Protein 1
Amino acid sequence: MISTDIIIIGAGPGGYEMAAEAAHHGKKVVIVERDQLGGTCLNRGCIPTKALCRNAEVINTVRKAAQHGVTTGEVSVDYSVAFARKEEVVKQLRDGVAMLMGGDGITVVNGEARFVDAKTIEVAGEQYTAAAIVIATGSTARGLPIEGAHLAMTSDDILAMRQLPKSLCIVGGGVIGMEFAGVFSSFGVEVTVIEFMKEILPPFDKDIAKRLKTVMSKRGVNILTQAAVGGIHKCDDGLEITFDHKGKARSVVAEKVLMSVGRQAVLPEGLEAAGVVTSRRGIDVDSNMMTNVEGIYAIGDVNGRCMLAHAASAQGSVALAHILGERSNVKLDIVPSAVFTTPELAMVGLTEQQCEDQGIEVVTAKSFFRSNGKAVAMGETDGMVKLIVSSEDLTIVGCHICGPHAADLIQEAVTAMNANMPVTRMAQAIHAHPTLSEVLMAAAKQF
């Protein structure tokens, strides 16, 4: 039996960042990983996808520059080059995580963890015990219960694909689906997206989602909303996807199909032995990320609260503070999210529809990138900012951005929301000119 202060199961962003923070506080940490350091995010999710999104962004930028009379030579659309770059990016960052986990106070154990009891786990025949055990086992791709679902690829599969298909049908118009639609359409693949909801990107404000849909449709992506997929079948030309579209039976044929309809928690073995309670979405936790069992915590995708890498890291900080007997000031209800299409999308807080549903009185303002000097100079004028502000005290309730560098711009709104700052204070701050941040300021000045 090996005794330590904290055991962390899973070395994704939530797990490895928490391990480093705990070691910094003088705690001895054992972190268990069955696959590769960095978890899904680094190896088969956020990072490799964003590497490909960057290639797509460059291709789209060069094509747009040509429309403005700027010649830059031919841009490479060789997917093998993009694939190799993706692998290099992942390796570089994984090596960095390995160095971080090689620090004092951290022991990395490779293998599958199984709970023996509430204070003990077993990995490869060795038992480890600690007063605090943190489950950070992440999630895996979820599929639809339809005929032929096994014929579709997951996001793991498509990131491992070395050759481009001639055509691709994406089932699901959420974040993952739209990012891959943007990537593969830029490389010349014929892309169709089938989304069950009325709009793509259901969590986003409808004004923003509609704007992206318009831009991507102009680029040749065929987007079908209010469509329920019924099955996938082999045919002479590849795969036939049958679906109901607004009451009419339809079908589309593609060489490959990507199933992109969400993710589900990966639960470690032995939770019953430890007495940990789970629900449909994952492991139940309280505001400190602790389960129903004293000393056992669950952070990140495995608790199903917010399936984003930075949310997992933030939850890890909250859990560690509780383990250390400290108070955390992290506001887990203010979590930004982004979609790395071209243009980018980003959001934080509530949509206008959610405010209406919850009876929150708000006022809104919009500003547009086409009126921003930097955006015009960049030739990136597609997009807008939408601010949703409380009628009572003018604090920001939600911010939604579609446009260049939206994922970076959203952070100004996140900071203001964390500080409970009235939007008028944001408008009074001097912004450098010409910068894209002035689009956000232009919306703030309307209050």
Protein 2
Amino acid sequence: MEGFLYIEVVDAMEFGRLIESFRTFTPRAEILLEEVPAPQKLATYSFALSADVSNGLLGDDEDEIASGRFVLLHEPGGQDTWDGEFRCVTYVRADVDPMMQEDPLLPEVGWKWLLESLSKAGCEFTAASGTVTRVASASFGKLSPRSDEAEIEIRASWTPVITKVDEMLNHITGWCNLLSEISGLAPTPEGVSAIKSPPTRGRR
């Protein structure tokens, strides 16, 4: 697109250097990242991370409250539908209060969370698209003692606009911002660093 400059990663070695920076990325303590197999047929180069988000409590009180997946695709020369050579694809889900799930504006709020999370991380992007789904589950029969469950799911993709490869880390930061927002985690006070979680687990 006119007015945008895209970095072209032309071989596996250069893309490998990019994903090594992803592997050393450290999110806030409640988010555990793990490298997972990436789809092989969508682009020449790809990389994927999964995320599990806990409530930050210890021992028996710890509970998973959200999860997600982030995929970075790179096609030298780009693809027509991307408007660029890279594409970020994500899926996130989180438990929500059943009353919140009934709010007809929840999908619009979820999409706003995505856009604001990316912008907050300093991301520039174009061609964003996706869906936000409200999910409600009721239990019956032998499962009836279980409480009704409600979730929000966001499936989205966007084309990062970058002038240097290092700026791609902003998009991982933005994705982690979205996980924090959708999970209802308290924001980290400005100027205060979160306690570091263990290094990203991955396949070496």
Protein 3
Amino acid sequence: MKFEDQSQVSGNGESTGRFGTAYQVLESAIEARAFPGCAFGMLAGGEVVLNDALGRFTYEPDASPVAAGTVYDIASVTKVVGTTAAAMLLVERGMLNLDTPLGEVLPGFVAKRATGDPARRVELQHLLAHNSGLPGYLELFRYAITPDALLQACLALPLQAEPGARAEYSDPGFILLGKALETMIGESLDSFADREIFQPLGMKSTGFCPAQAARPSIPPTEEDTTFRHRRIQGEVQDENAFVLGGVAGHAGIFSNVPDLLRFTGAILGSPRKDAGGAPVLFERTTVNRFAMRQEPAGSSCALGWDTPSQPSSSGTQFSQNSIGHLAYSGCSLWIDLDAAIAVVLLANRTWPDRQNQLIREVRPAFHDAVRRAL
């Protein structure tokens, strides 16, 4: 099924207004079971111009409806909202040099390697750019069943390419980056992010490890039949992050659309008016530096961020000077730095299992629809 523009529009709220086509894309996606429900929003000119929700937590008719402020497991969007944002702040404060070798911060990464091992040349910027040579996703949780064992497994991974020579999206790389940042700041990533990013921006619904009482208000991500053998709801879906205690550089943050739009406003340097004039955390020079595509040629990876590829999940309307990130769970965040526009889409496309891939069609169709509505 193609999620394209439809002439007939129905739904709630803005569905009869200028965002009607966007609503139709999402309604069609829910009908096709791309996901049971979603929350979505858009920031333009420093103001929230769209913030709504459709569908339910699951496909059961009596499941809770999704609200505009529903909190989701944002999975790999953690990489930019938490880990990369922390790195940006540390760079601005002169506390982080991106060319620092990883082995200087985490000696265990090089302790047992030969003198000429290319791992000794891996720098923190390589981890951000996903060009360290480390492998991509690995089911480390299958044999590393404690936080220390999983970290040690990451530290011991052999490189599959020379640093800077090949781009490969690497969860282990961001696990190590998160641990490196924790070592440098002398505290856990969750406490630093909460104090230095989430609280200043008024992101009251954002953080790692939701309280037990809050879990029923979060859409479930999966019926896990292979590892935890239970419904995953209100706890991180990513198994490696779960073994790490729910706090990791690559996954673990839970958030909602209003909070993420506050975050995008900070990236754009345009604090939201309804956020009480939240501070601008990031200098534009820092944003521009982290938004630059990295080696090798042809990679869409910037520093921590992704940029539009061809084709792109951001659709066809975002400029090349855009940054964003996707999540395995179905969530996404895209920011057009030239147009000062940001779009957030949160969904649990992995419910009840991970087989459905319709989100790949939904994302570009939705992004094109909301951009054209402006």
Protein 4
Amino acid sequence: MPYRHTLTDRVQFADTDMAGIVHFSNFFRYMERVEHDFFRALGMSIWDGHNEVTDGERVGWPRVHASCDYKAPLRFEEEFTMELLVEEVRKKTIRYLIRFWKKDGELSAEGRIIAACVQRDKMSGKMKAVDIPARIFEKIEAAPASELSPK
């Protein structure tokens, strides 16, 4: 499915606070990890620096929005599954919904990222939003509304 991807991981000691609970900021690292894994599963990389593309096709994906709502703590050594759903694909942006599921099926957190497709201008060095290249756009689609509904 080009709109859903899962990745299972285990909470590392370095991810936790003094109470052994995942520090809130690490959920953003987890969201990025599952996004990168999603791109790899589609035969691509989030970073075009090592891909066989010409300079005119190289793109980056800065975040223009990131948020996370927390429901139940994840603790040291606990296994959890990150579920990435493509909420929306526009000409220049992709919006993800990322859910964090505890092993028992309880929802731990729910986050959202909006990533813009950009290229660096060779003259000014500034990033500029561009259309998502067809080689990427054709591999990704938005999830059906039924998949995005709260569970």
